[in-house]
Write a structure and sequence with these properties.
The chain is mainly α and 78 residues long. The protein has three helices and no strands. The N and C termini lie far apart (38 Å). The relative contact order is 0.07.
């Protein structure tokens, strides 16, 4: 699955969301959970300028869980 559009194309927020969801769903379907974790880690290392991206991700997931009343797994607790 490849999205073939110009890197300079301006997308609406909904278009961007739809494309990212499609890419992530495809990744989840075609790779093991371990591979997905490795792929996302590599992506974050290359594209996020923060040293402690693990803390940013943990805080984001906690906030999402709180807003959506989702159970927080033990691995994300302090």
């Amino acid at each position: 699955m490849e999205i073939t559009t110009s890197k300079n194309q301006v997308l609406t927020p909904q278009q961007k969301r739809s494309r990212v969801e499609l890419i992530l769903k495809s990744m989840l379907m075609n790779h093991s959970p371990k591979e997905v974790a490795n792929l996302l880690f590599e992506f974050l290392q290359k594209h996020v300028d923060k040293n402690r991206v693990d803390l940013l991700l943990q805080d984001f997931i906690k906030q999402y869980d709180n807003e959506h009343h989702t159970a927080i797994k033990d691995t994300l607790k302090d």
